[in-house]
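Section 5.1 Outputs to date
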Amino acid sequence: MIETQRLVLRPFKETDLDDLYEYLSEITIHCFMDMKTETRDEAAKILKERLGDSNYFAIELKETGKVIGEIFAHPEGSDPSESVKDTFSPCWMLNERYQNKGYMTEAARAYITYLFEKCGARRVYAYTEDYNISCQKLLEKLGFRREGLYKEFVSFVNDEEGNPIYENTYEYAVLKKEWSQK
């Protein structure tokens, strides 16, 4: 569990289903993952997966106990056969009703500190679409540097004829030695 001034980042609970469904059903920006959920049953399946994976943290408002989003990352190595997994790529989602209030900055800052201090991260990187200006600003506010642009990198949606719509994706990163200077 990770606590900030206004938030608790904690493992998911079975009682989080309604809150999870609320933010997964409204996704408009795919944030490098196709997580949009159309039904409560789909959300229940996702929650079941979250309950069994300690890498996923629910973002809960301390004041009300409402889950307003999630943040997670899985350790990676530079080579899949390597035993050293010191690189992480966090993903996060926040209920649209709670955006532009500083919650994601607060959660991401605490979570990235956790990755560096508790999980042995050497490097943390993030992907974001070229049209997701708010995420780019958040990453820059957190001290990440833009490393590159991948043209037509990934597709999560199709056009009316069923053809994939590819997204241009930026990669941002920060090293532990850079983060500790913040």
